[in-house]
Amino acid sequence: MLQFVSNNSEESSLLFEQLKKGRSVRAPKYAYRASDVYVYCPEDKVEQLKDVLKSYDVNFIFNDYTLKNLDKKIITHFDNSKLSNEKRSFLVTATELGAWVEPLISYLDKRMGYTEVSLLQSSYFLHQKAFSILNTKRTQLAKRSIDLFVAIVLILLFLPIALVTALFIRLESKGPVIYKQKRVGQYNEEFKVIKFRSMRVDAEEGGAKWAKENDSRVTRVGNFIRKTRIDEIPQLINVLRGEMSVVGPRPEREVFIEDLEKVIPYYRFRHAVKPGVTGLAQVSYPYGASIEDAVWKHKYDIHYIKHHSTLVDFKIIIKTIKVVIFGMGR
Fold it and tell me: Can you list the domains of the chain with their CATH numbers?
């Protein structure tokens, strides 16, 4: 049997009692500033984790069961169901003796502000109560009420910008000012998203294509309204219709989703919520339209769904308004 020595404190004992009673416990401040993080996983997963974690500025120490002083240590675990009973007992005892213990992906989630999707397993999604945006009707009702209020306010606020944009689009190139395109929404149901046209009318004569940097199909006005997100303003109509939310994962096209879900784990989970006019990915990651960009955006989208709150929504809305009005985006 493994033996342990600890500087057990009143704080650690209280933490353990709260965990045993099933109460939600806020991580101590030191948890997300730690330079050393211990990872416990099956031996055949070590190389995979090392490869994923090599870009993180953290010293990850793997499967050190000789660790004695556990007080205030940061201990994470991955695929722990495949550990032996003795090794799982180590993790339980570590919690009792003052360590902060949680799943590796949850720890990275909170420390980095995005979800490391390459480590996602089905268990991450099977605790629906952890997703208040999915589980609580009151949260959904509040979000819809805020959507309606914010959409109306933003339409009034951005109406002058929208009118000027429509005029410049009309002057620069032939074709409609407004562009409608099928996108996938909540529960994988398709709807037509409404945007200001930013490309030439013949942009997809040869079929659907990823947009790219310095895309020749994008007009000069289109380039500006994309960078400032002005092209998204008409989507506030989609919000009023109930097809979108003000904040959420950006809606994507089915033709691209079919490719993306082949390389991005649980990509369609983003459709558990309504797509958004703006989102955490849009204010956290530069504009891009490639597989690599989609992976990064998915990291932020999953994090948003898991950690949604009204306060987070308002912060994202404020950041987006700054982008549109002051050009303060990425």
Answer: 10-112 (3.40.50), 134-326 (no CATH)
- 77-100 pLDDT, tens digit per residue, is 999 999 999 999 999 999 989 899
Taking each continuous run of H as one helix and of E as one strand, the counts in the chain are: 12, 8
Site of tokens 């675990």: 77
Helix 291-307 and helix 104-112, axial crossing angle in degrees, nearest 10 = 100
DSSP string, 88-143: HHHHHHHHHTT-EEEEHHHHHHHHHSS--GGG--GGGTS-GGG-HHHH-HHHHHHH
Whether residue 187 contacts residue 271, with contact meaning beta carbons closer than 8 Å, is answered with: yes
Whether 193 and 235 have beta carbons less than 8 Å apart is answered as: yes
**What are the pLDDT digits (tens) for 288-320?**
677 888 999 999 999 999 989 899 999 999 998
Q: CA-to-CA distance for 180 and 134, rounded, in angstroms?
A: 28
Distance between CA 310 and CA 78 in Å, rounded? 31
Contact 77, 103 (CB under 8 A): yes
Q: How far apart are CA 291 and CA 300, in angstroms?
A: 15
User: 218 near 198, Cβ under 8 Å?
Assistant: yes
